[in-house]
Specification:
The chain has about 350 residues and is mainly beta. Helix content is about 5%, strand content about 40%. The structure holds beta-D-glucopyranose.
Length: about 350
């Protein structure tokens, strides 16, 4: 484990005996890189990102690798009611609040609270004051990143607030299993452990409906190339310009597989686990052409995200599992991204 400081930001590198390596930045509690040896022994960096913290500040709207909170994804019309009181949030994505607005934790400097050599982990801490993002309650949050010997990156969240509030964290890593600089992910295969999505309205928020994926281009119940159906004429794909949808998970709050992805060219296989009720599968439809780390040319659909979370806008939809965190109670959630050949 090493710690360095780049642009006044602590950056921790976790390495295991296989040579697998994860770099975590204190700016946004962000995964900057995830290096793994492919079938030919070549180290591939399977997540998109930037060389230095300033890159993340220049390209805030993508949330590359970041921890997102207190609330991941959209809240319709940037309004919600929590324990009887109404809150107005920042509308930063048309009329909606996205990823807790521009004052979310994704671009804040977190404190490195603990480096644990034995566990190969780093714990970051952030304090978010009452109404800082429009949400009630002073909240202390922790995120622990652990790299295990079986090449899993475990991300564990904890949060506590002194008033009832929302707690709904995710990690926004953009995966490309051929390597971050290898272009479109259309040929990579994906399986999602879900038979249902929460379809979007034209405003990109769930309508409250639950829709079966069987017989539609949204169906990933068996491995399928991500690009196979992505341009089909289907209401949900037309609205989002590709996949940008929440799949409903059935894990009863226990850590379970949410998705698997595989790239035949590199042989790299991703197993993704969560204890959350949903996963946002996003194909980078809104990535605009720009330069990423190592001079890589990034563009639309050069990566996919598997963002574990409560269903988007769940705070306003009584039928969805609620992201409400009661005052004094502790929110826990875990996501694991494991790489193998
Ligand atoms: C959202 C996308 C958004 C992206 C980057 C994803 O979680 O679902 O609509 O463009 O984050 O902000």
């Amino acid at each position: 484990m090493t710690k360095e400081t780049i642009e006044q930001t602590d950056i921790i590198t976790l390495t295991n005996a296989n040579g697998t390596q994860v770099k975590v930045s204190a700016l946004g509690a962000t995964v900057m890189s995830f290096l793994f040896k492919d079938k030919d022994g070549i180290l591939r960096d399977v997540v998109l990102g930037y060389d230095a913290p300033s890159g993340y500040l220049e390209h805030k709207a993508g949330y590359f690798g970041a921890t997102v909170g207190r609330n991941a994804n959209r809240i319709a019309n940037a309004k919600c009611t929590i324990s009887g009181a109404a809150y107005e949030l920042e509308a930063n994505s048309d009329q909606n609040n996205l990823h807790s607005g521009t004052n979310g934790v994704s671009h804040k400097l977190w404190e490195v609270e603990k480096l644990d050599e034995a566990a190969n982990s780093v714990t970051l801490k952030f304090f978010s004051a009452h109404l800082e993002q429009g949400f009630p309650g002073n909240m202390t949050m922790h995120v622990t990143f652990t790299l295990t010997e079986d090449d899993s990156l475990k991300i564990a969240y904890e949060a506590v607030s002194d008033q009832d509030t929302i707690a709904n964290f995710t990690n926004h890593s953009y995966f490309n299993l051929a390597g971050h600089n290898s272009g479109c992910i259309g040929k990579q295969k994906l399986k999602i452990y879900s038979k249902e999505i929460t379809p979007l309205t034209a405003a990109l928020v769930p309508s409250g409906e639950i829709r079966q994926v069987a017989g539609t281009p949204m169906d990933f119940t068996e491995f399928k190339e991500i690009g196979r159906d992505i341009d089909k004429d289907y209401d949900q794909l037309n609205i989002a310009g590709g996949y940008d949808h929440n799949y409903v998970l059935d894990n009863n709050g226990r850590l379970a597989l949410m998705a698997e992805a595989v790239c035949e060219e590199t042989g790299i296989h991703l197993h993704a686990y969560t204890d959350c009720p949903g996963v946002q599968f996003y194909t980078g439809n809104f990535i605009s052409p720009h330069t990423g780390k190592d001079g890589a040319a990034y563009d639309k659909r050069h990566a996919f995200c598997l963002e574990s979370n409560y269903c988007p806008n769940a705070i306003n939809i009584p039928e969805f599992q609620s992201p409400l965190l009661k005052a004094g109670e502790t929110y826990h959630s875990e996501t694991v991204y494991r790489l193998s050949l």
